[in-house]
Amino acid sequence: MQVSARQAGRPGVDVRVLGPLQVWDAGQELALGGIRPSALLAMLVLNLNQVVSMDALVDGLWGPEPPDKATDNIHVTVSRLRKTLRGDRPAPSTGGVLKRRRPGYLLELDPDSVDLLRFERLAREGTEMVSATPDVAATRFAQALQLWRGPALSEFAALPFAQAEIPRLAEQRLNVAVARIRADLVLGRHAELIAELEAMVARHPLHERLYEQLMLALYRSGRQADALEAYRRARRTFADELGIEPGRALQELETAVLAQDPHLDYTPTPSTAKPAHSAETGPADAAAPLTSAAPSIAATPGSVGAAHIWNVPARNPHFIGRGDLLDQLRRWLQSERTLAVQALYGLGGVGKTQLVIEYAHRHADDYDLVWWIDAEQPVLIPEQFLGLAARLGLSTDAVAAEVVNRVLTELGDRSRWLLIFDNAEHPTDITDYRPRGGGHILVTSRSPRWGALGGRIEVDVLDRSDTVALLRTRIPEMTIETADKLAAELGDLPLAAAQAAGYLEQTGLPSSDYLRRFRTHRTGLLAAGDVPELPGSGRHRLGDLPGTAPHAQPGRRRPARDQHVCDGSVFDEDCFGRSGALDRSRASIAR
Fold first, then answer.
1. 177 lies in a domain?
2. What is each CA distance from 402 to 386, 389, 439, in whole angstroms?
3. Based on C-alpha coordinates, what's the Rg of the chain?
4. Could you say which of 240, 269, 298 is where a domain stops?
5. Which residues pair with 341 in a beta bridge?
């Protein structure tokens, strides 16, 4: 384990990207030598202790039209950076090393020497402590926010690499600020938060959670009329800017304010009444209540908080694309005022499960409870409700059917919950597990027969550009041309692309050689490509692609858009008949 100079009690390197890029060593700021060296260092810092390929560095600095000697330019720049970071010493004072590692460069440095990674660590610590010790969590979040000296990477805004990183980092900063305010509300600091929240709402006028927090702070400060005016302001803004009504949580909060719902009143919880714990306090029970207030102040498992009750699998680090589909799904769910059931159907290996996992993490802030249920074997569904009952604090000393009814009754009295039934075969498998009242149910299935229960969206293969991006993210040295050809061979199936990338990572085989071999040995190559144990991947290991099925005619291959998955394999349309043919234009909601 590396030990930082800071931990060892001596001056050391301090890399700061949460504001204008700065590098300090032994108490002195280093001159990096201009925008290009600084940008190169920033890219390496953002991928600390990971190899950044030469292609990625060139693309990040110059985009699609680099100069003729871009690679030589980078080599020279790295050489100068090494000298700058080393100074007059024979080796860096803190062990940080800028190394040449195929297919690019690697910056090795203690993570605690980079302000961004300290920020993320403090945010994680705050998240782990917020249930049991909100006072300690609030301090952690505040310490994280104090590391920011201004907008991150703003001096590189014109460079390609920064155009995605700038909004991502800004969103992280905002999420931590929202989490800190949430912890402060739990601690009863509502009156002192009002001015800060007013300023944040002005900067982020479309952020519903900030309006919720502002309304709650105003109401708890005895300003009911001002809380209602904040809601009207939010409603006007959403109508003028987006042409929509506020989300369900904000509407429910307005109703509670109008009714002077006692649940909105501040009541110290046991966690706020007891003395603060030490900084070493461990993670709290995820089922513990955070506040007696309305449950609209939930945190985000996907960013800096945690839903009260949550068992969703980890996010796929290589998830890509599907942005329009995710937005479409959320709009449909948010538009429903009663129970909303939405099915995502499509063929095996097309990415339905990963899409739902991404949705749950991306929009976890909408819910207080998110529960994942493997519905592949319907007989095992009740057992999974027993786990949910325990997390809800309900008695489980009864037959399974009675415990399920207790859970459904409890959920019927709530609204901010999401149940996910993964890989359900038939609507009757889940019909009896629908709570009354308002909440959301997502279903993944190969069957399209879900219209009677609610909405349904067909999930198609990836867009070609997304498949290419997925392959090149995993295998940075793969050229765009090779990635495009391989994507076509893979039928743009995300699981097939993951298997191909896994094989290339394991073997180090050049991409062009893999493509050539793939055309004659596709079954064995795909089967040999390891895929991490992500939910949904084990059921659909792809071992056959067009042209390899026993019934396929030699030399006959259909376009990617007409390929289909049948029991984990991609075949010609004979596998399903013409009625099963994919059509990219049908990725819309059928109500």
1. no
2. 10, 11, 21
3. 26
4. 269
5. 441
Considering the domain architecture, whether residues 437 and 468 belong to the same structural domain is answered as no
Residue 332 structural domain: 310-458
Residue 402 belongs to some domain of the structure:
yes
- Per-residue tokens: 448: 């399209």
Q: Answer yes or no: do 96 and 209 share one domain.
A: no
Question: Same domain, yes or no, for 381 and 472?
Answer: no
Residue 402 sits in a domain of what CATH number? 3.40.50.300
Sequence-ordered list of residues with C-beta below 8 angstroms from that of 362, at least 6 positions apart, any chain:
302, 326
CATH code, 94: 1.10.10.10
Question: How many domains does the chain fold into?
Answer: 4
171 falls within a domain: no
Give the pairing type, strands 340-345 and 455-458: parallel
Q: Both 76 and 53 in a single domain?
A: yes
CATH number at residue 209: 1.25.40.10
Q: Which of 115, 137, 164 is the last residue of a domain?
A: 115
Query: Any idea which residue has 């099925």 for tokens?
Result: 549
The dihedral region occupied by 112, where left means phi > 0, alpha psi between -120 and 50, and beta the remainder, is alpha
Instruction: Encode the chain (591 residues) as per-residue pLDDT tens digits.
Output: 333 444 433 346 889 999 999 999 888 888 888 899 999 999 999 998 889 999 999 999 998 888 888 899 999 989 888 888 776 555 444 445 788 888 889 998 888 899 999 999 999 888 888 777 889 999 999 999 999 999 999 999 999 999 889 999 999 999 999 999 999 998 999 999 999 999 999 999 999 999 999 999 999 999 999 999 999 999 999 999 989 998 888 998 999 999 998 888 887 755 555 433 333 333 333 333 333 333 333 333 333 334 468 889 888 888 888 888 998 898 888 887 778 899 999 988 889 999 999 999 988 888 889 999 999 888 889 989 988 998 888 888 888 888 999 999 999 888 889 999 999 999 999 999 999 878 999 999 999 989 888 889 999 999 999 999 999 989 989 999 999 999 999 888 888 898 888 888 888 889 888 888 887 776 555 555 444 545 554 444 444 333 333 333 323 333 333 333 333 333 232 332 323 333 333 333 333
Alpha-carbon distance of 519 to 528, in angstroms, equals 15
pTM summary value: 0.50
- Asked whether residue 428 is domain-assigned, the answer is yes
Instruction: Dig out the tokens for 96 from the structure.
Output: 């940080």
